[in-house]
Amino acid sequence: MTETITIQGLVCPVPIQKRGQVIMGHGSGGKLSHDLIADLFYPPFDNPVLRLSNDAGVVDVSTADRIAVSTDSHVVWPLFFPGGDIGKLAICGTVNDVAMMGAKPSYITAGFILEEGLELGVLEVIAASMREAAAEAGVQIIAGDTKVVDKGKADALYINTSGIGVLQRDVTIGGEQARPGDVVLLSGPVGDHGIAVLSARGELGFEADVTSDVAPLNHLVSNMLAASKSIHVLRDPTRGGVASALNEIAKQSGAGIVIEENKIPVRPAVHAACEMLGFDPLYIANEGKLIAIVARSEAEDILAVMRSTRYGEESVIIGEVVEKPVGRVLLKTAIGGTRIVDMMAGEMLPRIC
Amino acid sequence: MTETITIQGLVCPVPIQKRGQVIMGHGSGGKLSHDLIADLFYPPFDNPVLRLSNDAGVVDVSTADRIAVSTDSHVVWPLFFPGGDIGKLAICGTVNDVAMMGAKPSYITAGFILEEGLELGVLEVIAASMREAAAEAGVQIIAGDTKVVDKGKADALYINTSGIGVLQRDVTIGGEQARPGDVVLLSGPVGDHGIAVLSARGELGFEADVTSDVAPLNHLVSNMLAASKSIHVLRDPTRGGVASALNEIAKQSGAGIVIEENKIPVRPAVHAACEMLGFDPLYIANEGKLIAIVARSEAEDILAVMRSTRYGEESVIIGEVVEKPVGRVLLKTAIGGTRIVDMMAGEMLPRIC
C-alpha cells in the first residue's frame, strides 16, 4: 500500500510506504533515535563501518598521502524537483566538491536536521535517493547524525554532507593554479539546476521543461586526470553560477579570464526562462557541470575525453586565461563587444541547493 | 562601541561589535557570500588550508594508517547557556566523538545554516567561541559552508561540524570491545549540560546554579591512551545520558553492565533540579564527560591518570562488565536493590545539543 502526499503545499512525486511522522523524541539519543536510524538509515546506507555504530567511523588511509575534505549543508526548496531531490543533491554536491580537488571521493558523512512532523515516508524516499547517488559515485556513508527541531524551526529537513577523498600523489589542482595561456573548458549547458528548482517552486509563472543536471562528476574527473597531467583548475559552478566561479578563480590565480558568450551553451528552455525573468544564465546554479582550466597544448585531448564520458558529452571550450586584467572576468559578447562579468552581486534564486 | 542584544527573547550575554543582519544574499554564492566569509570566518579560523579557498581542504595523512570520521549537527537552544554556546558545543561535540575512537582529532569542517535576520554580531561572537575551543583542542577548521534560509525556517543558526582524527597503529577502541570483568569508569558528575541548558531556557521555573560541562576531551583521552593499552571502550554520554550510552555498549558488546547508584557523582544542584522535575540524572546529557571501559588490571592506573588531567579530576569507578544479562544495564540502587536501566524511552530535554 502506497500513497502520495503533499509537503507544505508541494506534492512529493514518489509514493511513500512508511507511515508516521517525525516527533521530538526521534532526536533524543534514546530508543526512538536508535529505532529511527535502524529503520530508515542503516538499511539503505549499510556498510561495515556504519554497522559498528560507534561515535565515529574508522577507515583505512594507509595508501594515501593527502586527502581532500569538504562540507556542504543542503537546504533546497522544494525537496523534490525535476531531475532530483535534496538527497541526491546532498551526495552529488559533496562528491563534486571533493572531486574538484582532483581527489577520488570515498567517504561521506550525513547530518540530518529534521522538522517535527515530517513524514517518515518522505525521509525514506530521500534516503533511498542518497543511496542510489552514493552507489553511482562509489562512495560510502560512514558516519551520520540526526537532530529534530520543533515544528516551524526548519523546512521539512536539511542535510549536511561532508566528504573525504584521496588525492593521487602527483595531482596539484586548485583555484590558484590558472596560468595565462591556459584554456577554459565547460562540461555542458549552464543554468539547468537553478531553473528546474525555480520551476518546481512555481515561481516562474509557467512550467519550464527543464531538468536539473544534478549528477556525480567524479568519474568524469577521474577520466580527465587519467588523460592529462596538465589540468590546473577544476571547479563546479554551483551557487553564483559560472560567472562567480570564474571570478573566484581569476582572483585566486591573479590572472584574467576571457570567455566568449556565443560559446557558452544554454538550453532553449533555460534561455527562455532567463529572458522572461531578466536573469543571466551565467549566474544560475549548476549541480552537474564543471569548469576545467588546462594547459593549451592538451586542451583538445582533454575535451575529447570529456565528450566521451557520461556527464561530459556536451563539453566545450569557452575561453582562455590571460595576464590582465588581474582578477577579472571578461565576456566577448555575441555582437562583438567586451564587458566585465562580476561576481554575483545579490541573491537571485534563494535556496536552490 | 558595543551593545548587548536579545535574540528571540533571550539575551546574548556577550556584547556584540558587528552591526547588520544576515540577508538571503549572504547565501547566494556571490559577492555577499564571499564578503561574509572573508569578514566573519576567515579571520578567526585562519590557517593555510582554509586560506586557499578551494572547494575542499587538502591535508597530509601520509603518516596515518587509519582515520576516524564523525559528524554532528548542533541545534541547541538557547544559543548561549552557562558555560558555553552553540559554537563551543559544535567544536567540542565533534572533537569528542573522534576522540572516543582513540583517535587524535586534527581537522574540523563547519557548515552553517543561518536564519535570515540573524545579527551578524551574534555570528561573530559564536565564531570567536569556536576558534577558542578549536585552539584548546588543537584542531584546525579546514572547510566550511554557509547557507541562509528564510526568516522562520531555522532558529537563528544551526552548525554542523564533521571531524577527522588520526588513529595510532595499535589502538582498537569501540563499543563492541567491552568484555566481562572489565571495569567501567566515568570522568565526573553527570547531568550538568542538560540542566544548564534547561535552566538557561527558563524551563526549570527557577535558576539552577549549574554550568555546562562542555569541553574538549581529546587531551584527557590522549593521556589515558599513553598510560594503558587496555582501554576497550570510550564513549561520551551526550543525548540520552549515561544510561543510553551504557545500553548501546552492552548491546554492541553482547555483555551486561552493572553500575552502582551511590558511586555515580551528581552535583547537588543537578540532583535538586532532577528531583523537582522528576528526571533521572542518568538520562541527562553531558558534553564534557566520558565513560571508559578498561581491563580490571589497569583500572586503578587509568583512574589515576584521569584524575591528574583537566576534565578528569572527578573521575570514578562506577561499575563493571558482566556476562549476563546480555545487552542489559543493571543498577544496584543505594538502598540495596537492583533494577534494569533501559535506554531513554521518550524525549525529556529537546534541543540540548
How would you describe the overall organization of this protein?
Two copies of one chain form a homodimer. The first copy, chain A, is of the alpha+beta class and 353 residues long. Chain A has two domains: 2-167, 60s Ribosomal Protein L30, Chain: A (2-Layer Sandwich), CATH 3.30.1330; 175-340, Phosphoribosyl-aminoimidazole Synthetase, Chain A, domain 2, CATH 3.90.650.10. Helix content of chain A is 29%, strand content 25%. The first copy, chain A, has nine helices and 16 strands. Chain A has helices at 31-45, 48-51, 86-99, 120-137, 192-200, 218-227, 241-253, 268-277, 299-307; strands spanning 6-7, 10-11, 57-60, 66-74, 80-81, 84-85, 103-115, 140-149, 157-167, 183-186, 231-235, 256-260, 291-294, 316-322, 329-332, 338-340. In chain A, a hairpin with a 2-residue loop joins strand 1 (6-7) and strand 2. The longest helix of chain A is centred in the middle third of the chain and has 18 residues, at 120-137. The interface between A and B is large, with 89 and 89 residues. Strand 3 of chain A pairs antiparallel with strand 4 (66-74) of chain B, so a sheet runs across the interface.
